[in-house]
Write a structure and sequence with these properties.
317 residues, alpha/beta, 33% helix, 28% strand, elongated
Amino acid sequence: MEYVGKVMIKDIVDFFGFEQVTGNQDSLNRWVVVPDVNRPGLELAGFFKYTEPRRIIIIGDKEQAFIATLPVDVQKERFRQITDVYTPMIVLSRNRECPPILKEVAIDANFPIFRASTPTYRLMVDIISFLDERLAPSDTLHGVLMDIYGKGILITGASGSGKSEIALELIKRGHVLIADDRVDVSRIHNSIVGHSPELLVGMLEIRGIGIIDVAKMFGASALLSKDNIDMVIHLEKFDPTADYARIGNEDDLFTTILGVDIPTLVLPVKEGRSMAVLVESAVTNFRLREGGFNSAKEFEKRVYDYILEENKKRGLK
């Protein structure tokens, strides 16, 4: 996957509160563009082939022990290579002291080295998770994102199809709003996470009424800052000639968002239909299917059993 964007060293240090060992303020004007870290065992041993030089380097106890076995001239050679212009920064785990030769080389190059109290494995996970979120591919979608029965549901449809009105009814029924009208999405690992642009947080546009503040009207519990998108419900104007799902055993539909296929249901909008109830029912059925219960297959089994029973009564095999 191609990651986009970049994160400044200063933002990482401010977020985690790392202690700076070497480098001045200018040394923080480096960028991280790869959401991964490197424990430089092979590099310290002199093997640099296939090395991705743009990763943050983490030095743990094993690396510290190995460094102590290297002659001074070898240390200087290896440290100059891992503190080049491509490497964003080095972080020492468990608040260990910086090896003296590494510190000397870093000072000469104005290269940033930091210390963290975190154990090495935890430090790796924390930094990768942070970078994954900050460097994840992103996009903007038109729709309403809500948390319904614990599932992130993206409601889409043409302008004027009633998305915001359905969202208002769902909020009144105890469900939670994440974003209305514009949904900013990011791919984190194999999940799509959606949130509202800062300007629109907590706002819902209802035609004929205008903008309403959901938190003030329904309380802070009616809002959520972000949520995974587990399902897409697409609203379209009812077409009597269209072939909509009737039993539920039709081919599954998906919406591809940033390369991830999200299960999708098409709901026809028609006067007199309680769309909020239908959305709730769709989500409940989706959760049942995730749990292994398929209403369509259960219905097929009932029909099959009924036919068998009828055939028996008629003496047919």
